[in-house]
Design brief:
binds arginine; single chain; three-stranded antiparallel β-sheet; alpha/beta; four-stranded parallel β-sheet; 23 helices
Amino acid sequence: MADGEYGGATVEGNLKKNVARRIARLTGEDASLVESRFEVPRDRGHGDLALPCFFLARTMRKDPSRIAAGLAEDLEGTIPGVSFEAAGPYLNLRIDAMLKTSEVLEAVRCGGTAFGRVPGWDGKTVVIDFSHPNIAKPFGVGHLRSTVIGNALANLYAFLGARVVKINHLGDWGKQFGLLDVAYRLWGDEGKLDEDPIMHLYELYVRINKRIEEGDADLDEQGREAFRRLEQGEEEYVRRWKLFRDLSVREFKRVYARLEISFDSYKGEAFFNERMKETIERMRKAGILVRSEGADVVDLRDEELGVAIIRKSNGSTTYLTRDVAAAEYRYETYGFDRMLYVVGQPQELHFKQLFAILRRMGYPWVERMEHVRFGYIKGMSTRRGTIVFLDDVLDEAKERVLKKMEGLYIQKVKEEERERIAEEIGITAVVFSDLKNRRIKDVEFDWDRILSLQGDTGPYLQSVLARIYGIFRKVGDPPSGGVDYSLLGEEKARELVDLLGLFPAAVEEAAREREPSVLTGYLLKLAASFHSAYTVLPVKGSEENVARARLRLFDCVRQVFENGFRILGFRIVREM
Ligand code: ARG
């Protein structure tokens, strides 16, 4: 695919290709290899691009510093607006600021909503397993994190042109459904179930477990019996199980819609439970199943992964077995290039076991699977206490924003718009707080902090966008035609341009590392740069051409912000 088709074809990208071709001619090395070796110097004082010359030493049989010096001399003056300089074994390239400004801003303008789209993922199939709550158990903070991170990754790969398959591997099977069935028959209420199924089922689950804990062994036995009947497919039991599941899924969908999240599949554990026989048979054929105390296990001790239970002595299968079947099914169905499990750190062993088993079954595609881990959220609670339901978190965020609007947030927002804007700010605050740090780190959750307009917060980022739209409202729409980029010579303008040019690199890194925090970090930097720029680069009262150029610059900031927001799942509000 031609580079021009990507919104990420920036001045650096084009330059790399161009220079690599020239170096290939000078050295006899392969051009695409040379192109792949360019780096962006950490200290931009060293230039815009650098080529470490070590890799050329082998074929050229020369010291890397001498190679760098020779190349600098040969290349200087060959590309207008670009200067070459050797620094030890590095060949540094510097792009003339003016050239850079026009190239970067034109790339943003032409790229539009696709600016930042870097190559590597186009047409690839990426399956993402995320959110995956358990029916009748609380939607925990772990599920919240998985939902937010998984959605950002799904948006990211879709942005990069991948076919993304979003899977909600529901926890809809297991002996809790036997207990639930008993509890529903004892205390269930059809009306409540219909109205708030997630809460009602959860209450029933808590109630029956409490009774059992208090010593009611009979209920426990009834639960086991009910699950046995369910497993055997007794109609009445299956019908109730299906009702619980359907109503819960309906409710989940409603809440996901608030976050603009949808799934391609809700096939959960129950679905794979039915495919267990063939899967276990394949394991047996692969010769990896061992009998141990009446159970079927895979002995992974030589990999220090313990003994994995595939089928318990009572005949029932496990969470792990269902995941083996799910992996096979997904490969058959989607033929994925990448399969990501967005699941918390505590399940690390589970996924190591899963991958080890698939490897022993002889599936080469196991190397395409990854456990995308994350840490805990600490300190999150809502009015209902520390048990967190997603819907409650979003409601609470919204309510708190509404309260704050009377104080902190700008009050100009029309009454009838307030509810909507409060929802959008609240959602962004919650999502941002999750995506702010590297995912493996724990999240410290504090309502006041995440809703603040100051510091590293979602509302702070939103306020930048609202400010840019405010400028457009005041002085008019940004120009659509040509602009004199030489009027953007101020240091603050150049800094901003420099950062805009780095967006594709941030997208690339986020995609490579499965790390949305690279993008939140990038947007925070861009926000700070915008803040320090816009006061010294006024639009109103400036000469017409200067005003046009500045509006273009701010419009490019807006575009990059919006592209980042769409990927991360933040909401764009134009006033707040
Ligand atoms: N429902 C599970 C839990 O809450 C997470 C499922 C993760 N996905 C998977 N394929 N195992 O722990």
